[in-house]
Write a structure and sequence with these properties.
This protein is an alpha+beta fold and 403 residues long. The chain folds into three domains: 7-120, Butyryl-Coa Dehydrogenase, subunit A, domain 1 (Orthogonal Bundle); 122-232, Butyryl-CoA Dehydrogenase, subunit A, domain 2 (Beta Barrel), CATH 2.40.110; 238-399, Up-down Bundle (Butyryl-CoA Dehydrogenase, subunit A, domain 3), CATH 1.20.140.10. It contains 14 helices and ten strands. The protein has helices at 7-24, 28-34, 39-48, 66-79, 84-102, 105-116, 135-138, 163-169, 238-274, 286-319, 324-353, 364-376, 382-394, 396-399; strands at residues 121-125, 142-145, 151-161, 171-178, 188-193, 201-206, 216-226, 231-232, 276-277, 280-281. Helix 9 (238-274) packs antiparallel against helix 10. The protein is globular, with a radius of gyration of 21 Å. It starts with 6 loop residues before the first helix and ends with a helix. The structure holds flavin-adenine dinucleotide. Residues 123-127, 131-133, 159-161, 208, 216, 373, 376-378, 380-384, 401 line the site of flavin-adenine dinucleotide.
Amino acid sequence: MQFGWTEEEQMWRKAVRDFAQKKIAPRVREIDSGHNIPDDIIKGMADMGLWAPTVSEKYGGQGMNVTMATIAAEELGRAEISLALPVMYLVQASWGFILDRYASAELKQELLPKVTAGKGFLGIATTEPGGGSDIEGVTHCRGERSADGNWVLNGEKLYISGIKEAQRMGGIHMTLVRTDPAAGHKGFTFFAVSLKDNPHVTTTLIENWGRTGISTGGFNMENMPLADRYRIGEEGRGFYQAMEGFTFARALIGATCVGAADAALQMGVEYIKQRTSFGKPLAANQGINFPAAERFVDIETARLLTYKAAWMADEMYANGGFKHKDIALYGAMAKLRAPIMAFETFNEVANWLGAMGYSKEYPIEMGIRGVRSYSIGAEGGMNIMRMIIARELIGGEYTNPRQ
Ligand SMILES: Cc1cc2nc3c(=O)[nH]c(=O)nc-3n(C[C@H](O)[C@H](O)[C@H](O)COP(=O)(O)OP(=O)(O)OC[C@H]3O[C@@H](n4cnc5c(N)ncnc54)[C@H](O)[C@@H]3O)c2cc1C
């Protein structure tokens, strides 16, 4: 068992931390109030190799493994507590990896160099108006082969991140549609759908109350013709690719929550050391420093689960050391614990700060708003994590919600 970091990992963490603390941390309020990640930050991230870093070097990425991508996620969470920019990062990192793994060389060459250069958005679209948890049951978007071997897509995706960004920057959303309705979960296929200047697509925007630096909305495809080269991987493999991408993204979500919670705890600790009440620092009261100790342990617990999920994924991809279901279990554990832990940490620190904690002078409120998107939605709700964990613990024959 080896809990240390390699020299390369330490150097990468330091490089991302230096960049993020200097270029991103001072601008969190601007990101949150402006409902936008400024172009110069996106360019800076792309120059640092932080835009879809998991994509292979051939297409402009860093060919980064899951652990390295997770380290960057933690540092971006530490710097951007509203958690909008980390979402932007983690969507590109996890789904860029899946696209690179399964799309044809021709499609990758067309799409990925723009994404890794920060000049194209790469999003994921599985959720529909009928729901997001039960993909097999509620996905109605359809893809039908036309006579010439290409496709026609119909249907609506909703609660999708990056609608405005994809229209502005270009790029694509990996869009899951049913291509064989009789085949159950084996009847899904991913397609690369562009939202920019697409006459067969209408978009909507939804106003969220958190992580407002990245847009959320939907798109409706109406008799949208699409060449077969925009199919991502084999027909019928979409459900499996979606599960693989979710697992990757859940480790990154865990890490962003760990980073943001750690930043909030450090802010709180600084405050309770200098603020006095009844003649002594707040920090001298066990009513304050015991909860601080609890939060410290909770952060480390979530960190351990997160990096274990990342390490297992690297072992699987590099050496075939684990099966996807093993990593899905640890990804779900990290995703179950980390967002709630971050929410509770923000809440606790807000208590220590008193009235200041309720003001916009401190960034804590952005964290409270932002992190709820991670527990409610973003790569599966909390009960879906419990479902995955219970399935592994007890057995799918007992826990399958369809039975
Ligand atoms: C800010 C934001 C951004 C998002 N971005 C994207 C995106 O980019 N791409 C994308 O595809 N989706 C995106 N989503 C959607 C997200 O994936 C879904 O919200 C999530 O999968 C849950 O689906 P739902 O909201 O339809 O809830 P539902 O599936 O309707 O579930 C409602 C609630 O019931 C729980 N539940 C469901 N089934 C069970 C059960 N059997 N037992 C117990 N509890 C159950 C769920 O956990 C949830 O709490 C985003 C969501 C948010 C909030």
